[in-house]
Amino acid sequence: MPARRPDAGLGLPRRPRRAAGTAPPRPARYRRLGRPADTATYRCDRQVDDVEALRVHLGLESIDLLGHSAGGTLATLYAARHPDRVRRLVLLNPSPRVVGLDIADADRREVAESRRGEDWFPEAFTAFERIWAGQATAAEWGAIAPFSYGRWDAVSQAANAREASLTNGDAAAVYYSAGAIDPAAVRAALAGLGASVLLVAGEYDVGLPPKRAADFAGMFARAELAVAPGAGHFPWLDDPQWLVATLSGFLRQDA
After folding, report:
1. What is the pTM of this model?
2. Are 177 and 26 in contact (CB under 8 A)?
């Protein structure tokens, strides 16, 4: 893979900056809620203060916190900064960027090649190889979409088609601003976190392959890893019953 930092969501090489009027990068998912006067407030480290302000506003001594993908970065940063305020932490397919966990080409290939039996595989894998080689165009980024889902069916295709309308390009551009994350400091904080942690990975998630998800979970003092069978980056689409049962079981612990 080219020597570029992972993107906000899937941990793949970052897309080139978009031209005005084009669709924003796909992996960073933020709903459009209006542009703030200072877009730097979209930085992941700045949003930690927003989560803490909400906790105070709600009058809660501690909270159960869940984050998915790039949202997992925010949840992890909050737990690192306010460890005494987190009762339980759930990370769904979190971005490995927050802890500086590099995912090798071989890790991604192993997961991707396990799907050779899929009808869409040849075209998608060819596009993946071009991305790894630093030769991607917009067409390649679109072609690898099936790798994000456990099944490339009508449900996942409809979800993928909605991506542009659920993406805030302004937020995506600054979320991982320079200096927003100190992976070494985050890892040190997580090692002493007393909260129970559940890290959910998808069997087919190329952004955080299960083997590397185990490394991520190992950075916490009290963490368990659950791998969703046959799931990709969106376990609530691939197997909602499994996800509900897994989360419910975890949240009932120490209740």
Report:
1. 0.86
2. no
